[in-house]
Amino acid sequence: MKLVVVSAGLSVPSSTRLLGDRLAKATAGRVAADVEVVELRELAVEIAHNFTNGFPGRKLSAAIDAVTGADGLIVVTPVFSASYSGLFKSFFDVIDPEALVGKPVLIAATGGSARHSLVLEHALRPLFAYLRAVVVPTAVYAASEDWGAEGLDGRIERAAGELAGLMAGLSGAKPAVEEDLHVVPFEEQLAALRSAG
């Protein structure tokens, strides 16, 4: 299986990347998966060019292929103006809206203080619900004071376990066969009710 981390951190080193790495390590410890990291900082120019010319550059195209071909995603953004970063949103804007349907996603964010932790619920979760991805119940937010403090490790482990469970479950699931489904048109159902009455 393939696990892809999308990190929107801008600095080097980055707390956003560090959180993504810890989540990936915890997930890969539960399910056999190759981990690939997509650093959006390195794709910023190609993302902007994609908006103006409609075509992804070589690196951006490879990143999109990695994300859309993954069995599971970990997406991590720093908080900017009480939401995800513009770079993070722009990357997911250039991906086909149908490409993430049913894909297991773990959402995470970093910020300067705990007061921004609701960004996960009011910004990230709705974005991936719109893309019809399957977002794990536990989201992980790491404020500056969380590093080295109690609680962060437990949230990482719980979220990683949920993502690993979804990845393992979906990889073993057999797709529904449309021929096995018998759909009776609504008009026929109404006609049957009228004749029975």
Which descriptors apply to this entry?
197 residues, alpha/beta, Rossmann fold, 7-stranded mixed beta sheet, 7 helices, 19% strand, CE1759_FMN_reduct, oxidoreductase activity
Q: What is the compact description of this entry?
A:
The chain is of the alpha/beta class. The chain has 7 helices and 7 strands, in the order βαβααββαβαββαα.
Description:
The structure is a single chain. With 197 residues, the protein is of the alpha/beta class. Helices cover 44% and strands 19% of the residues. Strands 1, 2, 3, 4, 5, 6 and 7 form a seven-stranded mixed β-sheet that branches. Helix 1 crosses helix 6. The chain starts with a strand and ends with a helix.
Can you lay out the helices and strands and say which pair or pack?
Blueprint: E1 2-7, H1 15-28, E2 34-39, H2 44-53, H3 58-68, E3 72-80, E4 83-84, H4 86-93, E5 104-111, H5 119-130, E6 134-135, E7 140-143, H6 152-172, H7 186-196
Parallel strand pairs: 1-2, 1-3, 3-5, 5-6, 5-7
Antiparallel strand pairs: 3-4
Helix pairs in contact: 1-6
Helix content: 40-55%
| CATH fold-level topology | Rossmann fold
User: In terms of per-residue confidence, which ranges show pLDDT below 50 for 5 or more consecutive residues?
Assistant: 172-180
Distance between the termini: 55 Å
Give the oligomeric state.
single chain
Q: Assign an overall shape.
A: globular
Return the CATH architecture.
Answer: 3-Layer(aba) Sandwich
The biggest beta sheet reads: 7 strands, mixed
Q: Over all CA atoms, what is the radius of gyration? A: 20 Å
Number of strands: 7
According to CATH, the homologous superfamily is Flavodoxin domain
H/E element order = EHEHHEEHEHEEHH
How much of the sequence lies in strands comes to 15-25%
Name the average pLDDT.
89
Alpha plus pi helix count: 7
